[in-house]
Design a protein that fits this description.
Residues 32-42 have a biased composition (Low complexity). This protein has 619 residues and is an alpha+beta fold. Helix content is 52%, strand content 13%. The protein is built from 19 helices and 13 strands. The longest helix is centred in the last third of the chain and has 41 residues, at 465-505.
Length: 619
């Protein structure tokens, strides 16, 4: 479910540069497909957005084990008549399952021991706690989950720029830092919302009207600001205002993270010096999240934007976000992957003057047709997200005290990229600008109408005025109650939408998340190993040794030609599994270093022997 539309325009040009504002929720859409850095109001108002988002190739194999095995047997000629390969596949699957089962039992044991210690108010054992979390990090690494990168966060900030239509959620970063919140992702997808979408369409039209009004107001104010700043007695006041706004700017916190340090991957076997590795990774991660996603309230955002348009404060700094364009790469499996977007601006585009030859009647008929027609919104999404955080000390709602140590795990699927803040544990709701303006304007106009029309009568000359005053005051109280109720209903609608989104998108939580991660790690290891082994067997026909790079490229080509999936094959991890299980060996032939596959009969015997040894250990 998408909680709002992001108004970007569709265009046919390939995206080259996306300029992303450091202020994640701008009134205007971020500038894109443009090499110009002009910050004029007119150019910003007419800017054109992008309809496709470039994302990296997948690092995990999204195909099921059975389909992958069938494809290998069907498309690799050397394995057509191999009786051993299916048996090798079964033994490999069983061995990896047994290894992960052992890891699960160790984690369960650590979980239960720490649970008992916490229940009896004893401090948790540090070595058990560290072992649990080190194992968890190792599983995340094997399953190809990655920390959210700077690129992911900047993309979230850019797509979430149209805050008039997106539910404003901002995170309590102080609590997020204290709870060591960290997010891992795997894969990208698209999320669709279908229906009449009448409310969303009307909200978009109102946002355009509101934006036009703001621009109209800013122009005369800009002239007034230019004239007043030339006056000597006003200059000191203006300078103090600029300094005050600069000090309040939360985006100065972007210096808290270093872009190069932020993208360092957390290694499962790093030296923790007695500290828990997830905590170490989270301290860097929260600073990175805050530096890019830090939002402020809608009224402050609007106030800052108006002051920027007027010229009292400098415009929000913008960072060019380079997007590689490798469309001319000869190999199709190496070309970039693009996710399509359909926003509300795309839906309304046929009713614009450009497409209706500025014919008002034609624009009106087209708009009515669009309003009452079925529509589709489509947004790029994170395919899988894992949130890890710890309960706050003394948190009253911390029901599950059996985590290690109070470690909370939640797994979500298909979270739209602009709605990433919705999964954070400590988030705050605010009113959208469009709702704020509607509610505030209605309240102000109603109160003005009341006090303008209210007439004060002399009680001595008109005793009945007391009754009229009672009626008037009662009407004012009733009106005030309706205003408060209107705000509360809007707030409740926001909260219901957030809860519904999280409920529908949650895959697992608590210790159940460990089962999910274990299964993801097991399946990924199996698919990497069986694919690499099969391709290595086929590649050695006519050559003595195969390099790691060549093997990885052959695996990537196989995945694209058979499944049309672009994968960045983690060949080093796959070969580590093959070498560990005696399915391949490293060698050097004629000065060429590479790997060779163990023939199927010998590989079968090696796996059979290992499986038997595992069985003997369990008896």
């Amino acid at each position: 479910m998408m909680m709002g539309g992001v108004s970007w325009h569709t265009c046919t040009l390939p995206p080259l540069i996306v300029t992303i504002s450091q202020q994640p929720c701008n009134l205007l859409r971020p500038r894109s497909l443009s090499s110009s850095s002009s910050s004029s109001t007119t150019s910003e108002h007419k800017q054109v957005g992008i309809s496709k988002i470039q994302v990296p190739r997948l690092k995990h194999i999204p195909i099921s084990k059975s389909h992958l095995l069938d494809a290998i047997l069907s498309n690799i000629p050397t394995l057509h008549h191999s009786n051993h390969f299916p048996l090798i596949s079964k033994y490999l699957d069983s061995i990896l399952h047994a290894e992960h089962k052992t890891m699960l039992e160790e984690m369960r044991s650590d979980y239960e021991i720490n649970s008992q210690q916490q229940h009896h108010t004893h401090p948790p054992t540090l070595n058990l706690t560290s072992r649990f979390q080190l194992t968890l990090m190792q599983l995340l690494y094997q399953a190809q989950f990655e920390e959210l990168s700077v690129r992911d966060l900047m993309l979230t900030s850019a797509l979430n720029s149209d805050y008039l239509l997106t539910l404003p959620i901002y995170v309590d970063w102080k609590r997020a830092y204290e709870s060591n919140a960290i997010i891992f992702r795997r894969g990208y997808a698209t999320e669709n919302q279908k229906g009449l979408l009448i409310v969303e369409k009307l909200d978009y039209l109102q946002s355009l009207l509101l934006r036009t009004i703001f621009f109209a107001i800013s122009k005369p104010l800009q002239k007034l600001a230019t004239w007043t700043t030339q006056k000597h007695h006003v200059q000191s006041w203006t300078e103090r205002l600029r300094l005050w706004l600069k000090e309040l700017s939360v985006f100065q916190k972007s210096i808290l993270y270093n872009e190069h340090a932020s993208d360092e991957k957390t290694c499962a076997n790093q030296d923790t010096n007695g500290e828990i590795p997830i905590w170490l990774a989270a301290q860097r991660a929260v600073a990175r999240y805050e530096g890019i996603l830090s939002p402020v309230g809608p009224r402050e955002r609007l106030f800052r934007r108006l002051l920027s348009w007027i010229g009292l404060i400098p415009p929000t700094p913008q960072t060019p976000f380079e997007v590689d364009n490798d469309s001319n790469t000869p190999e199709p499996y190496l070309r970039p992957t693009f996710l399509s977007r359909i926003s509300l601006s795309d839906i309304w585009r046929p009713a614009t003057g450009k497409y209706c030859q500025s014919n008002p009647w034609k624009m009106f008929k087209t708009a009515i047709s669009i309003l009452f027609s079925q529509s589709v919104l489509q947004e790029p999404a994170f395919e899988e997200l894992i949130l890890l955080y710890t309960n706050d000390v003394g948190e009253p709602n911390a029901e599950d005290k059996a985590e290690v140590p109070s470690l909370q795990l939640k797994i979500y699927e298909r979270i739209p990229i602009p709605d990433l803040p919705v999964i954070f544990p400590h988030k705050k709701l605010s009113f959208r600008i469009i709702d704020t303006v509607r509610l505030d304007l209605a309240t102000i106009l109603g109160l003005l109408a009341y006090f303008i029309n209210y007439k004060f009568e002399n009680v001595s000359s008109s005793p009945s005025a007391i009754l009229l005053d009672v009626v008037a005051v009662s009407a004012l109280i009733i009106y005030g109650s309706r205003v408060v109720l209107g705000y509360k209903q809007t707030w409740d609608r926001y909260q219901l939408l957030v809860n519904k989104t999280l409920y529908e998108k949650t895959l697992a939580s608590g210790f159940g998340s460990v089962h999910f991660i274990l299964d993801a790690s097991e399946q990924q290891q199996y698919k990497e190993a069986i694919l690499a082994y099969a391709v290595l067997l086929n590649a050695e026909k006519g050559q003595q040794v195969t390099s790691r790079q060549s093997l990885g490229e052959k695996c990537e080509r196989f995945m694209y030609e058979v499944f049309k999936v672009k994968v960045e094959m983690p060949i080093d991890k796959a070969l580590n599994t093959l070498l560990r299980l005696s399915l391949a060996t490293e060698t050097c032939v004629d000065g060429r270093h590479g790997v060779m596959a163990i023939p199927c009969p010998k590989a079968y015997e090696a796996l059979k022997e290992r499986w038997n040894s595992l069985l003997s250990l369990t008896q």
